[in-house]
Design brief:
There is one protein chain. This protein is α/β, with parallel strands linked by helices. It contains six helices and seven strands; from the N terminus they run H-E-E-E-H-E-H-E-H-E-H-H-E. The strands form two sheets. Strands 3-4-5-6-7 form a five-stranded parallel β-sheet. Helix 2 runs parallel beside helix 3 and helix 3 runs parallel beside helix 4. The longest helix is centred in the middle third of the chain and has 17 residues. About 5% of the residues have low confidence.
């Protein structure tokens, strides 16, 4: 009832070896923005607002990129909508969510499966993105409050959305909404 047929989801390429079966879904990453309000010590992805890399993608440019990819015959099934995180209190947050939703819509219109991984979400945001995505994801990164709060740790410069309790609540929420969800530990 999420708008994706079982046949479309099952379009994963398969590699068989004598002792195991490995499946995967060929993907392409679309980054709505590199802008992120976190300041993780290990990150080389983040761009501060105002930096050239922090410029936001448009749905039209996402469509052009995906159409060009498909025109070249790329064997892509899934679009990873992976982006920086716009602060939950930012006046730009609603536009950021609409951009992610728009990229999902463009992906679906081209027969591709959108997988969103854009950071912690409110209940309303998760419900909306969950309905627009084939699946979602969020890295737990780690689950130690001690590491998260360490003065010389990777989050010491300020990374409020990397709080392990917040991220674990996201997994619970995805379960409540019955959203297929991926995660991992760094």
């Amino acid at each position: 009832s999420r708008g994706f047929s079982a046949a479309a989801v099952a379009v994963a390429a398969t590699v068989a070896t004598p002792d195991r079966l490995v499946t995967y879904s060929p993907s392409y990453t679309v980054v709505p923005t590199f802008e992120c309000f976190n300041a993780c010590a290990y990150c080389n992805f983040r761009a501060r607002r105002g930096e050239p890399r922090a410029k936001w993608l448009t749905t039209d440019s996402a469509r052009r990129s995906l159409e060009a990819l498909l025109a070249r015959g790329a064997d892509v099934r899934e679009v990873l909508v992976l982006g920086g995180e716009v602060h939950p209190g930012s006046r730009r947050r609603a536009a950021w969510l609409e951009l992610a939703l728009g990229i999902c819509e463009v992906s679906r219109s081209l027969g591709l499966l959108p997988h969103t991984n854009v950071g912690p979400l409110t209940r309303e945001e998760m419900a909306r993105l969950g309905a627009a995505s084939a699946s979602m994801g969020l890295m737990l990164e780690q689950v130690s409050d001690r590491i998260y709060r360490a003065r010389d740790g990777p989050y010491a410069r300020g990374a409020p959305s990397k709080d392990p309790a917040l991220r674990l609540r996201q997994l619970d929420m995805a379960g409540e909404f019955r959203i297929p969800f991926t995660t991992g530990i760094l």
